[in-house]
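Support case: user asked for a sample of complex input and structure output to validate their parser. Sending the pair below.
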Amino acid sequence: EDQVTQSPEALRLQEGESSSLNCSYTVSGLRGLFWYRQDPGKGPEFLFTLYSAGEEKEKERLKATLTKKESFLHITAPKPEDSATYLCAVQALGVEDSNSGYALNFGKGTSLLVTP
Amino acid sequence: EAGVAQSPRYKIIEKRQSVAFWCNPISGHATLYWYQQILGQGPKLLIQFQNNGVVDDSQLPKDRFSAERLKGVDSTLKIQPAKLEDSAVYLCASSLRWWDSRTSSGNTIYFGEGSWLTVV
């Protein structure tokens, strides 16, 4: 059974203090790994999709990396506005060339608080 | 570009009552999803539509939950009768299609703001 584990559950950083969030996964075959940001009272907001080990993507202060077992979301010099819950999700390989999808399996998220 | 629209945003009902949530996906998106997110958890897929056909409802509690997507656009999720454990945020999401075999890439899934349900 596919599993996604995120750590830590909660993280408190000072503004400018860089850190990393971890997403460990087990899946029969990985189609894609997704990172989302969720603000209180809002729906998840898409950040990145990674498809193969070694792939990296960046957006402003965020950088996502992928290995065969885990993904990291690196936050460089965070600001208070980066405070949110960060969700990781995996999509498993399925029937080739099929438009029928396979569910995103989400982790519980990491709640990030960045203080001034 | 307008996002995924959901209503109502908030609903409080008593157990055993019924409730319905409505979703309008991004224009042109063929794939529509309903997710349930319980406080402190990640979203869990309830049902996925491709146009107006169901492609995955394996985690939908069919004795009390139902969903439809008539004409392949708007969708409604219904709960009847509601239980206390149904208190959650119901998220609707959409994507152009699920998978692009030409580029071997998935399409971005966009979420709505969610409908918050409290069952008392």
